[in-house]
Amino acid sequence: MTTDAYSSLKERLEGERAHILEELSAMGADTEEGGIEIASYEGFADSAASTSEKAELLALVERLRETLADVDDAINRIDTGSYGVCEGCGEQIPIQRLEARPQARLCMSCQERS
Length: 114
Ligand SMILES: [Zn+2]
What we know:
Blueprint: H1 3-26, H2 38-46, H3 51-80, H4 95-100, H5 108-113
Helix pairs in contact: 1-3, 2-3
């Protein structure tokens, strides 16, 4: 495993992070440091026409927030040198999997078990 492979993954993660932040702010969610407050986009969701639209919007924002947390975590793990290790079994996650999903925390077999 080369450091180069990880640095290109880090670039992708940083690109992904910027993209998620853009999407969140386009939806009116607060993306300030320290996490995104649900309260800050409830006002926006209230303007949605129906309850189901509002629920959909909140679910989407929630998914983006979760992905953002995973991406942030992955970037942090690259910086601290613990990236690429499965949190389930402690084995190295195959680079093919990391390339497909750079924010992966688990290897395929642990993912399937979880
Ligand atoms: Zn594993």
